[in-house]
Write a structure and sequence with these properties.
Number of helices: 11
CATH class of the largest domain: Alpha Beta
CATH architecture of the largest domain: Alpha-Beta Barrel
Distance between the termini: 50 Å
Helix content: 40-55%
CATH topology of the largest domain: TIM Barrel
Order of helices and strands: HEHEHHEHEHEHHEHEEHH
Radius of gyration: 20 Å
Oligomer: single chain
Strand order of the largest sheet: 1-2-3-4-5-6-7-8
Largest sheet: 8 strands, parallel, barrel
Strand content: 5-15%
Shape: globular
Number of strands: 8
Amino acid sequence: MSVHGKARKITTNTLLEMKEAGEKITMLTAYDYSLAKLVDRGGVDVILVGDSAANVMAGHDTTVPITLDQMIYHAQCVQRAVERALIVVDMPFGTYQGNSKIALDSAIRIMKEAAGHSVKLEGGVEIVDSIKRILTAGIPVMGHLGLTPQSIYKFGTYTVRAKEEEEAEKLISDAKILEEAGCFAIVLEKIPAPLAKRVSESISIPTIGIGAGPDCDGQVLVLHDMLGITTDFSPRFLRRYLSLEDQISQAVTQYCEDVRGKDFPNEKESY
């Protein structure tokens, strides 16, 4: 039966089977019950409860400020809505870097309190101890290489990563290290398309691209960007499927006019 059939719940193993079969993996973010329900119903394979909630839900400039408690809250909301998709929860900045015991404790909290299906960590060889420790508890881990937004203060910019050969070779090496450590998939963010192709072909686990070209095993976008709810962020890789900012603004304006003009509620809308 197709992995897109209604009866089949997506698991980490499903994604491996999809890569082997050459089927593309779809992934979108969600942070609340109502939108997660629509995303799941729409047929997306993986829902990322992203630390991008710091940007689109809370209005922060970076993903750094969001806390573990806040991530767990968003994951709880999403988990209640989802029937089919695999849920991946971002581990926020400060919950896994440099201390594998804190990393394990943080991942366990996400799994116990939010009933997440897996966690995602940013980085390569530097955080492999944390990844291994989380995996010893039976918690699936998705990796994230290339542009790692939690490291914005280190990079100082959100430009494309791994354009130079040295950084490209490290990225390929990191991808292999993450695979050997036991990650079930890796997000590749904002790296040159030819490099993403090389990485995807050199490892057996799926790659999910965002601004990494068409040769990754799947793609991910931030839901609010893709729906045109947030429009101040327009990178080259983003395709807007709707322009909800305009439509929502128009609906709100119309509602205000109808109430002020005593048109709403009318007789049919009253008891």
